[in-house]
Amino acid sequence: MRLLLLSLLALLISCQSEPAATTTEAQPPNVIVIYADDLGYGDMSAYGSDLSTPNMDFLAENGVRFTRGYASSATCTPSRYALLTGIYPWRNKNAKILPGTAPLLIDTAQLTMPKIFAAQGYQTAIVGKWHLGLGSGNVNWNQHISPGPNELGFQYSYIMAATQDRVPTVYIENGRVDHLDPTDPIEISYKENFAGQTTGKDNPELLKMKWHHGHNNSIVNGIPRIGFMKGGESARWVDENMADTFLVKAQEYVRSHKEKPFFMYYALQQPHVPRTPHGRFVGATGMGPRGDVIAEADWCIGELMSTLREEGLLENTLIVFSSDNGPVLNDGYYDDAVEKIGDHKAAGPLRGGKYSLFEAGTRVPFMVYWKDHITPKVSDAMVSQIDLCSSLAALIGSEARTDDGQDLLDAFMGKSDQGRDELVLEATSRTAYRQGDWAMIPPYKGPALNERVNIELGNMTDYGLYDLSSDLGQQKNLAEDEPEKLQEMIAAFEKIRGSDYGRIEQLELK
Ligand code: NG6
Ligand code: CA
């Protein structure tokens, strides 16, 4: 009898508590993924940098800051592919740094992060850098450009097609070039120049920024680019205004979509080359344009946060901040990045940088902030951007999961220190393996150092094996001392990657 009474009581309590639980869960959170371009592990003060990044640090210090957070690749396109699909980029042979004329890389039938959100009733948007290809070959830039982000689940898009250093140097809103004058059509080629058009190579007198390697084709806004462009004068961006342009679009989107949950992918263009801070930030850091655009990006994040605060959205918006790949100083222009670096270590304590299979290629700043919902902490859980699709799906009650991604929501919310056990990393079509504290890099042909960017690429004549718990900077190759560990790592790597992982003869970099 007493038991029965107790269970009746328990039932009563559980019935009563249910409505309360559903009310608190009722409004799913907005989600914003802020994605920097080439920001290194050591570039934020929260990660030990001497650069002042108060707004990025705010997210880090009031959220979960990951010390082992990874981009999927050491370059942009493959990382963005993995972020938005939850699939390893090396599974798609076309997932390489794309020219501005490349067709859309992601199949429109494929599951994507914005589709996961849209299926749960979210409004979805991208503002910023795309670099995943557009159209299905031979794009006519003067008509509606499709397929693109809008066919992959983004209901609103305001993007640059590829990179800031590649043509076309125009903004595209929902598939239409913004501010295009139809009487001055755009023509783009990555093969040859258009008659009568100046280039960085032939017309150095017209340049306000000099090219160091590559980047000597069409000149736009005094800056020589990769690729040739003709026409579209009224639509061409002014690089110095790009941060403001994207920020305003992101703020407008938030203000006009606050009635229903939204997902916004805010893809910053900094600190990728060409580094063109607005005049307000010139000289802000004493570190030249690279430092100044990091200050500018930091300010943009602060402004977006202010907008969320003003609109009363901060308590109901989860923010992820990370970077698409590691840092590079000289990436093709003379811009004082090397000369003014001083003691700053863009990669922090890590070896390598952008393009590298060493840790600095892919281990990046990574944090998740959600006011009043996440208790601030530093987490050593290993997480990858490839896990965001499955984890954010779990957050919003979607059952969607991707093949290579894991649901690590508890780790992202700081409730668990359990991250992934293993991870395959990619850099310019080569792959390496992480498991626990160990990193394994297979042998690849090619130069050990890319001299032009001055980055160690991770090409070695034999296997590299590193114990990151005692050797974060990957200075001591243990492959010979730990043959069993090495064999175990190779076997585990090949189980995911297959044995045909291509010890490529030539690097893709020109
Ligand atoms: C390289 C460019 C580099 C940068 C990179 C893409 C040359 C010599 N180098 O090919 O400047 O644009 O591509 O960077 O052209 S990423 O962050 O978008 O992957
Ligand atoms: Ca990048």
Notes on the structure:
This protein has 510 residues and is of the alpha/beta class. It has 2 domains: 30-176 and 243-417, Alkaline Phosphatase, subunit A (3-Layer(aba) Sandwich), CATH 3.40.720.10; 423-497, Arylsulfatase, C-terminal domain (2-Layer Sandwich). 22% of the residues lie in helices and 18% in strands. The chain has 9 helices and 20 strands. The chain has helices at 2-25, 54-61, 76-85, 113-119, 242-256, 288-310, 388-395, 409-412, 483-497, and strands at residues 30-36, 64-70, 123-129, 156-160, 171-173, 176-177, 187-189, 219-220, 223-224, 228-230, 262-267, 317-323, 366-369, 377-384, 422-427, 430-435, 438-441, 449-450, 455-456, 464-467. The protein has a 10-stranded mixed sheet with strand order 6-5-4-3-11-1-12-13-2-14, sandwiched between helices. The chain has a 4-stranded antiparallel sheet with strand order 15-16-17-20, with helices on one face. Strand 18 (449-450) and strand 19 (455-456) form a beta hairpin. Helix 5 (242-256) packs parallel to helix 6. The longest helix is centred in the first third of the chain and has 24 residues, at 2-25. The chain is globular. The model is unreliable at 1-25 and 504-510 (pLDDT under 50).
Brief summary of the model shown:
The chain has 510 residues and is α/β, with parallel strands linked by helices.
What is the CATH T-level topology of the largest domain? Alkaline Phosphatase, subunit A
Structural class: alpha/beta
How many domains?
Answer: 2
- How many runs of DSSP E, i.e. beta strands? 20
**Largest beta-sheet details:** 10 strands, mixed
